[in-house]
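testing teh design pipeline on a random one, pls ignore if ur not involved
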């Protein structure tokens, strides 16, 4: 085992690596009444292929079913018995699990996550029960026209890269995936070398590591799974798709290809997103802004052209997209929505944002950063995610890098990425009670 204490702006955590490859990050908060235990795996829909889409999300469901020292229902009983909370989720890049526990109950979190890592049962009967659950989730999503529009947008923007399908997968694949498929996926990706364990709470790193070694040290080392090698080719022209779905609203959505986290353009793109529709940088828990004073809200919502208008940019491991998302006001045509939206894009391309717009965005970012430091749950999640992508120190440096973005840089990235050639447009005309649009 080796250790390397590392500071970050507003955050301090010690970094450790077990002999089996498990990376551990420990953030000590003296006198904290609770602790957070996070296990973050570098596996999500990014690691899937046609035929097994949705498998990472399904595996996540199975890992609450017990195995090894834990029987079905034990995870919930153990955490609930001490008044704690637990959950898990799957994204395009990661699958994460957490327990928020009283400060003296670290062993519960370590037991659950060590058994989850290598000893999940995958009982065939539970696999079939959970098949019904994930298929039902998919069918429920299909009843939401906006889900279908978002799905079509990504399927059209990405031709090859796995970001093209949703984390829940395609129904046809969910009906075909076998217990062996699930178990093979689990054995490939749920290994110490592909995981980061984050503990945030009152204990010193030495005390945590003594306990942690007893739970995770015996786990066998294995080869780190290979990274996906599918790259999305550059887009050479605008793509458009139009849907007609049962819906009481019309939707207009646009996706522009963008670079991954780590490139210099990411920070001006974050500021562009903040100026257009508000800050959502630290997206776990409270602290998000509604964006009522932002450009898209003023241009579309206040003028009753749209009932909702937003942008979204969250950096990912591989190049992803900057999204513009508008729900048309009843009676307003999508043609008018499109003209107004692209007029706003052109304005920020031609004229840098005013200093007070950047100042307001930075104030919101700093407020969200303060929320992040306010709870063990949010800290553990973000430390683990940023460590997988680059390093957890990147989280602390993020605010500093956003503070030096200039108005000219914001306009520059808008001109560079928010172009007609680089965009995919998906519009949905809602058929209202079968009387047409």
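output:
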């Amino acid at each position: 085992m080796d250790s390397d204490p590392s500071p970050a702006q507003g955050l301090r955590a010690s970094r450790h690596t077990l002999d089996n490859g498990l990376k551990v990050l420990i953030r000590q908060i003296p006198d904290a009444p609770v602790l957070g235990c996070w296990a973050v795996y570098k596996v999500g829909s990014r690691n899937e292929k046609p035929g097994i889409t949705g498998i990472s999300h399904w595996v996540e469901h199975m890992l609450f079913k017990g195995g090894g020292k834990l029987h079905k229902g034990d995870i919930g009983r153990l955490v609930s018995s001490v008044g704690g909370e637990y959950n898990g989720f799957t994204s395009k890049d990661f699958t994460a699990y957490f327990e928020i526990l009283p400060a003296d109950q670290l062993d519960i979190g370590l037991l659950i996550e060590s058994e989850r890592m290598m000893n999940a049962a995958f009982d065939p009967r539970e696999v079939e029960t959970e098949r019904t659950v994930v298929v039902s989730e998919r069918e429920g999503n299909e009843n939401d026209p906006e889900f279908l529009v978002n799905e079509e947008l990504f399927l059209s923007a990405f031709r090859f890269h796995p970001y093209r399908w949703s984390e829940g997968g395609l129904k046809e694949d969910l009906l075909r995936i076998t217990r062996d498929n699930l178990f093979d996926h689990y054995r490939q990706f749920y290994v110490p070398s592909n995981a980061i364990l984050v503990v945030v709470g009152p204990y010193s790193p030495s005390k945590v590591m003594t306990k942690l070694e007893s739970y995770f040290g015996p786990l066998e080392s294995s080869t780190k799974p290979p990274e996906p090698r599918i790259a999305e080719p550059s887009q050479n022209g605008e793509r458009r798709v139009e849907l007609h779905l049962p819906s009481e609203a019309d939707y207009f959505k646009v996706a522009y290809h963008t670079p991954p986290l780590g490139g210099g353009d990411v920070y001006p793109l974050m500021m562009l997103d903040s100026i257009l529709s508000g800050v959502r940088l630290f997206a776990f828990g409270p602290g998000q802004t509604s964006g009522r004073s932002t450009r898209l809200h003023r241009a579309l919502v206040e003028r009753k052209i749209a009932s909702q208008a937003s942008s979204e940019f969250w950096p990912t491991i591989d190049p992803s997209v900057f999204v513009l998302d508008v729900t048309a006001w009843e009676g307003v045509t999508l043609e008018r929505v499109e003209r107004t939206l692209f007029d706003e894009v052109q304005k920020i391309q031609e004229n840098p944002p005013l200093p007070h717009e950047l100042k307001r965005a930075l104030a919101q970012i700093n407020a969200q950063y303060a929320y992040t430091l306010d709870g063990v749950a949010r800290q553990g999640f973000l430390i683990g995610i940023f460590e997988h992508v680059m390093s957890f120190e990147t989280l602390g440096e993020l605010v500093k890098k956003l503070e030096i973005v200039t108005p000219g840089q914001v306009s520059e990235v808008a001109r560079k990425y928010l172009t007609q050639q680089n965009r995919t447009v998906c519009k949905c005309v809602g058929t209202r009670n079968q009387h047409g649009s």
